[in-house]
Every structure is written in structure tokens, then in C-alpha cells.
Write a structure and sequence with these properties.
The chain has about 350 residues and is mainly β. The protein folds into 2 domains: about 10-25 and about 45-180, no CATH class; about 190-315. It has helices at about 30-40, 195-215, 285; strands at about 10-15, 20-25, 45-55, 60-75, 75-80, 85, 105-110, 110-115, 120-125, 130-135, 155-160, 165-180, 225, 230-240, 245-260, 270-280, 290-300, 305-315, 325-330, 335-345, 345-355. Strands 3, 4, 5, 6, 7, 8, 9, 10, 11 and 12 form a 10-stranded antiparallel beta sheet that branches. Strand 18 and strand 19 form a beta hairpin. The termini are far apart.
């Protein structure tokens, strides 16, 4: 009697293009596929994504696309994006979370703004990377988020003339949080619960700590510079764990003024942004003492790669009733996403990835 040994050669896509060839004993890959489908399916896990709403400014056509970031379940997070730098091999044929996760809840500052249904998979360009996304109509979304306010930091525009194809590209884009599951609680913002005097006291504490931290930053760079007062760009107040002692967030920037001169012109002083600081604090007003939960600093000086961190949304990603924080970090030609969770008196990073860039 002849026995046949079956060996499976599995092709697994890498997150940034190319493939790994995985040598698998019989039965192992099947068990892995079953575990992935059952334990991390739509009824068990939450697919955390961004909804990018794109508008063709020439035709007025608007469409949405879901950009997967991470899959969350019971405090565990897995990478969910599929990207490539390779122009020759299509992503559209690859298996993806978007084959199973079809409906998403859309949030803007903690408020649900409708649902978005993925009708098909597509490939979309994000800088030098092609990303597998889920596209669909925007008819189920609130009209309030189908605006492209140039003052909104989430809004970006792209204009180009593609001479080779004789095509003019003029698009605007805005993004929002999209999750496949609704958390037990969606809005953790408690700023409206406090009077102006209390809020000003919290801002004062944030600014005092920010000034102390930014004062340590070297601003000489071998040139005569003038340090300008730090500026609070954004303030938010949340109660992440519902204990009645809120967490405060302050986004700060610091600029310097320096002398510059160009050939054939007189010397003049110009301002340039030097550093960005995002600070999270448990204020003394509620906690007995100021407790720093997180500081994210980005050097914005000339020649650096950082552009700072942006708060995307606070939401209950893993269904435990506690708010997690989703950030986007931006640099020169690189973007990534990060999720932080409140643990042991700190905001700790639980996920980082799903990036794109050149």
C-alpha cells in the first residue's frame, strides 16, 4: 500500500509588499484558517479603520473607502492593512478582512454619523504605496461629515497634471473613525460637563507642564534664535474609564524666530515651528496631583522627519467599556497609526502600524 505525504506550500503576503513562502505540515494551515475565521470574525472582533471620503473637485463625485488599521479582540490587536510598493502585482485578488467585515459605524468626535457599507474591494494610492481598501456609496452618512472644510486638520487636497495620460487630478479628502462594531460607549468627551473656570484651571496645569518640558529642548542649532511663547493648539477632556476623574489632552507647539538672509536681499527674521508636544494629564484638580499619562514629542526642525501626532478619536475598541485612543503620526512622506490604552496609571501603546509612505 502506497502512502502519500501531502505538504502545503502557503504564500503569505507581507505588509509592505512581496511574499513569504511558508512550509506547513499537513493540517496546520487549516487549523490556523479556522481559528482566524471563527475567533477573529465579525461576531467576535472589531475591525478598526478609517473612512476616507474623497471628492473629485472637477466632477463633484464623492465616494468613500475604508482603510483597515487593526483588528481588536479582548485587548489584543492585529495588523489589518494590506499594502505594497509593487506596481506589477494586484492586491485585489488577495484575501482580506474586508471579505468578511462589510458594515462600519462612522464617528466624528464621539458621535455616530451613520454607517458605511463596503460593496467591493479596490486599490487606492496613498503616497508611494498602494493599499487594499473597501469602497462604497456615502448615502448612509450624515451630510454634516460630507464637507471639506479647509480649516479642518483632517482635510487634505491633491492637485496635479499627469502629462503622460493627459489627465488633471483635483481631489479633496477627509477622514473619520470607522469601526465594524459599536462599543458599549461611544462618547468619552466630558468637556461640556465642566464650567469655564474649571477648564481654564486644567489648561493652566497642562501649559505649565508643557513649558517645563519644552524648556529643555535645544533651540540653538548654532544660530541666533528667539524662542517664542508656546501655543496650545488643541484641548480635549475625556473620562476614559468612567471613574469621574477625567483625563486632559493638550496639543502644544513651539516656534522660534531666527535671522535669515538670501542672496541679493536684506536680512530678515522669520518664524519656524520647532517642536510639537501632545500631553495627556490626570489633573491635580481631580487627582490630588498632576499625573502625566503620556507625552508624545516630535522635533519639527529643518532636516527632521517628524511632523507630530494627531488625535483621531477616542472610542471603546475592544468592548470593555473603557476608551482607547487612536493617533496618527506624520513625518516627511511617512504616516502610521497608534492605539493607546489606559493601564497602570499610564497610557500605554497597544498597537502601532498600518502605515504608508515613500
Amino acid at each position: 500500500m502506497t502512502k502519500t505525504l501531502i505538504i502545503l506550500l502557503v504564500v503569505v503576503p507581507m505588509s509592505l509588499g512581496g511574499f513569504w513562502l511558508v512550509f506547513s505540515p499537513p493540517g496546520k494551515i487549516l487549523l490556523s484558517q479556522i481559528e482566524e475565521t471563527v475567533s477573529w470574525g465579525p461576531d467576535k472582533a472589531n475591525l478598526i479603520s478609517l473612512l476616507y471620503v474623497r471628492r473629485d473637485n472637477l466632477t463633484g463625485r464623492i465616494h468613500g473607502e475604508v482603510y483597515p488599521i487593526a483588528l481588536a479582540k479582548n485587548g489584543e490587536y492585529r495588523e489589518a492593512s494590506i499594502t505594497t510598493f509593487d506596481d506589477k502585482h494586484p492586491l485585489i485578488t488577495q484575501s482580506t478582512r474586508l471579505d468578511k467585515f462589510k458594515q462600519f459605524h462612522i464617528y466624528d468626535h464621539g458621535m455616530e454619523k451613520g454607517t458605511f457599507n463596503v460593496t467591493e474591494k479596490s486599490e487606492s494610492d496613498y503616497q508611494c504605496v498602494r493599499v487594499l481598501v473597501g469602497t462604497g456609496p456615502t448615502t448612509s452618512l450624515s451630510p454634516s461629515i460630507l464637507r471639506f472644510d479647509p480649516m479642518d486638520a483632517r482635510v487634505s487636497s491633491f492637485h496635479s497634471f499627469q502629462g503622460g495620460r493627459g489627465k488633471i487630478v483635483d481631489t479633496s479628502m477627509v477622514y473619520y473613525l470607522a469601526t465594524s462594531r459599536k462599543g458599549e460607549k461611544s462618547n468619552f468627551d466630558v468637556e461640556k460637563n465642566y464650567d469655564l473656570a474649571t477648564l481654564e484651571q486644567i489648561k493652566k496645569s497642562l501649559k505649565s507642564i508643557a513649558q517645563a518640558k519644552l524648556a529643555q529642548h535645544d533651540t540653538t542649532y548654532g544660530e541666533e534664535v528667539e524662542r517664542l511663547p508656546i501655543k496650545m493648539e488643541e484641548f480635549r477632556l475625556f473620562d476614559l474609564n468612567g471613574d469621574g476623574n477625567p483625563e486632559a489632552m493638550g496639543q502644544f507647539s513651539m516656534k522660534i524666530r531666527k535671522k535669515v538672509s538670501y542672496s541679493g536681499s536684506a536680512e530678515k527674521r522669520v518664524e519656524t515651528e520647532l517642536i510639537s508636544l501632545m500631553l495627556w494629564l490626570k489633573p491635580a484638580l481631580f487627582n490630588g496631583r498632576d499625573q502625566v499619562l503620556l507625552e508624545l514629542k516630535a522635533d519639527l526642525a529643518e532636516g527632521s522627519w517628524g511632523k507630530g501626532y494627531d488625535l483621531i478619536e477616542v472610542a471603546d475598541f475592544d468592548g470593555d467599556g473603557i476608551g482607547e485612543v487612536l493617533f496618527k503620526s506624520s513625518g516627511w512622506e511617512v504616516t502610521a497609526f497608534h492605539i493607546y490604552s489606559l493601564k497602570n496609571g499610564k497610557l500605554e501603546k497597544v498597537f502601532s502600524g498600518a502605515g504608508y509612505g515613500c
